[in-house]
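Side project, low priority. Logging it here so it doesn't get lost.
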Amino acid sequence: MRCIIPAVFREHSRAPGKSMSGPAITLEAVTEMKAVDVLQRILLPRKGEPHDVRMLYLIESEQNTKRASWPDRSRVALPEGTEVSFQTYFNAFPASYWRRWSQLDTVVLAMDVEGAATISVYRSKHDGVRISVTNVEAQDERVEIPLKLANFEDGGWLWFDVNAESDATIANAGWCSPQEADQQVLPDGTTIAPSEKKVAVGIPTFNRPRDAVNALHALAEDPLVLGAITDVLMPDQGNQHPADEPDFAEAEENLGGRLKIFSQGNLGGSGGYSRIMYEALHQTDAPFILYMDDDIAIEPDSILRAVQAARYAKSPILVGGQMLNLQDRSQLRTSGERVNRADFMWGGAPHAVYDHDFAKYPLGYVGTEEEDLDPRKTTSRPLHRRIDVEFNGWWMCLFPRVVAEKMGLPLPLFIKWDDTEYSLRAGQAGFPTVTWPGAAIWHMAWADKDDAIDWQAYFHLRNRLIVASMYLDGSPNGLLRSMLKSSYKHIMCMEYSTLAIQIEAMKDFLAGPDRLFGILESSLPRVQSIRKDFSDAQVIESAADLPAPTGAPGVPTNKIGGRLAKVKKIPWALKSLRHLATTEDRAHWEAPQLNLTAEEARWYTLSRVDSATVSTAGGTGVAFRKRDKALADDLIKQTKELHKQIKQRWPELTRAYREAKPELTSHENWEKIFDEQ
């Protein structure tokens, strides 16, 4: 093997696992480093994946006259003259994250080469600029290339391209550690021994038996992944059971005795995940606990990647998986999140990227500086910067056992904000959350759900207030302004059921923390009972079941966009306010004025009519919304009164919820709930 190393790489490097004050080592010592432990395997796409999904794994040169092929997911055959790049989401190495969070100073790129091929290694800077690192000419040999992590303070990836000099095969490739994992330092300065590569996987399920069984199959799909899984813990909270699926027995057998199912009432996501953490701590010795939703698709190696990131971290960290869009599978939904303290609402972390399509804009497409400055242009440049987050959703999240032991269990919130709160709690104790690129699941995007307006709106608001009372320092004015703005929007959109259950949410928040466990199971039936009296909460199979729309001349249905969108909305807002000040024409309750898609159901449209049908986000039916001025006025009056009470009682409520946190997260109290099931 002939290794060509540019001058930029001929620097002294710190020894693996040593601080900057430790002895430096020479390039000769670095080049002798060997791959000890795989951190991230190079994966080929599954058979039958469409082209856009394959772009997450490898990119074939447009100049190729022949196609690459792969008999399995760890070997790729390249005809002579073929060029492929692994500068892709799943196969590039997020070097800046390893530099920031891990014990490592060096990583080793290892692979088996059959035939003759040139391996070209590149790195990127935080702004996406590509820099050549080394070229290696290999023929019928095991190749191991040590690469320093010193250049990745703010961002950057490592990747490699392959040029087949003859018919060649690349096999068993991966990014590896040159050393075993070392001890970790806890926030109090004490240390813990290195953890084994073992994990207990927890998947709560509620009436998604097909999805749950598919998830179990995925865990057993890869022998290396399965070998790291000690237990599969599945709280079953519904009346449609995975065990009733025809292939459940096969999935259970494939897991080799690891599966444990716990039947319990519907305690929501927080009850399901609390049961997982409880059982993992009391019934297993796994050093890591991994949460997964049941309605996802997963790249199984993501489990190993999360475990390795946690094992090699300098100090214990929570490792979150990123979310890809299940309905547009080459699209990265989110790269990292935080809570905006101005209004205490979820939002993107600084420099985070949303809805990025790797099929259209591969990792190497960084564009020009002019494109980067134009908000209308999309490039991959922002994806090269490291994103520091505050929390990660529990579609996939890994917890070191030591963190779970010290932090207790999730809050009894049923659904929503339990994942956020746990990361905030852990972060305060010195255990940060890291959303790890290349460790990911596919999940339905938020835009494809109605959870901001359906029964879940109760939990959104109640739990947002609860978590804010625990972690928001200072005045709640920004939070209350945000809530009031949202309430007016619901009124304008004739979403009266949403506002009614949000009123119930505020009342339950004001009642204090003592009754949270008591209403854990009863809140949902109560909310559903309230909603049944509102037409906007009733789903009709089709708008065709109603009279034809009568029309609403002059009412806009198109989306306002562009830089002048806010200015354009001003006259429409004035017209909306004039209309909302009048008493509704109930003749329009007999037949809708408009039939709208979910995308068309915007405030500047619905606030100009007295009725309309609106399709559900999933397109399964429609809701017939009817304007009722008296009802709207009463709901807003109640809302403002409750806002006043929240503001007045905020110091008292923050003290009460913070003091109650140990009881709300205790094993003993959760155990009582589980015993009652």
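Brief comment: The first strand starts at residue 2 and ends at 4.
Revisit when time allows.
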